[in-house]
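Page 47, continued from p. 46.
Same chain as before, 427 aa.
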Amino acid sequence: MKKTSLWVGVCLCPIFANVTHAQFIADSQAELTLRNFYFDRDYKQDPYRYTAARDWAEGLIFKGQSGYTEGSVGFGMDVLAMAGFNLIGNRADDYARTGLLPVNSDNSRDDYYGKIGVTGKAKFRNNQLFVGDLVPQLPTIFSSPARLLPQTYRGVRLVSTEIPNLQLEGFYVDQVRQRDSIHYTDAGIDNINRRYNNAATTDHFYTLGGAYQLNNAYRVRLYHAELQDIYQQQFLGFNGKQPISDQYNFLSDVRFFNSDDAGSEKIGQVDNRHISGLFGLNYQGHTLSLGYMQSFGDTGLPFLSGAESPVVLDFMSSDYSNKDEKVYSVRYDYDFKNVRLGETSLKGLRFMTRYAKGEDIDLLSFGDQRFEEESMEVELGYRVPEGRLKGLGLRTRFSHYRNDMPTNMTFHSTNETRINVDYSFKF
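Result:
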């Protein structure tokens, strides 16, 4: 209770500043997103407790951002308000949790839920401080956007762009509010596929680092992170888009993680080096990419509870981040922006398909036995590019995922379908 009161007090401090300044109002902006989300993960592996994970929900996400007050130090405030509504009713009670809606102890879903986050902020020259609800997008702490509502953290963020082409950034968080929850809980780690001795939570997490823009084509990123008494991690990344002719571009994204246990080792040993790379060739609307990942060390890649694995190959039905796992992937994207059917432009329409195969998976408790997983995904999306319906988008995704792991593991063989209809408008 004392912690909560402190955070609320700090976040609301800007309210008591002189908010009549013109810039505070003139630079303010607001956005409302309406999101309809159907999620169906149909399990194809027997025996298992559930036949599927299935939900249908409507979400509202309001983002309000003020400008800063005038003066050498400016103050402001941001608000993030969210609500989710159950559209499938009590029929979802027979299905596993999807992350769209909160699930009660009897596996039932409520008709609706809502949450609000307030963030106080201050600015001095090219330095900004944020205190309150945060939505980080770093490789070491990434707020998952893959469900109805985003995951948020409670803490402090400091950003500096004083040095040209360099953005320095740091986060300190002590609580997380998961995608399908209205409650704050301690930050922690899940025991996915039993990669560690157990799951655990702790008092805080922090990360420090920066991104440097080498030139118009390439960026390098370096971060250090620590989840107290659980793991510490270093990240080095390199990505960019390099023109190689008038019509061809070379795309690259390489990420390296070095992870070890920390402090009192609440989950036991953590020992992992993980390398992942995705390289693509773009020609007009076509992009063909090849990817590879490999995990080294005595455990899998650790990352924060409720998030996705921060590797370059982000698949729907598995994280492909097990001990010793080698992953091969091929991906094809097509952007219809230059295609016309008669007088009709197909700008805004995109297609993607990709395949991945993971092998040599060590599940630790099965001796020398090795396991495999593979997935094929197809995605088709359209966003209205202009006119009165600009901001309206439809996205449909399908995944065919199979593995030969035991049924007591986290990931199961599935046919998965996700359909999103989003409409965002600013005012």
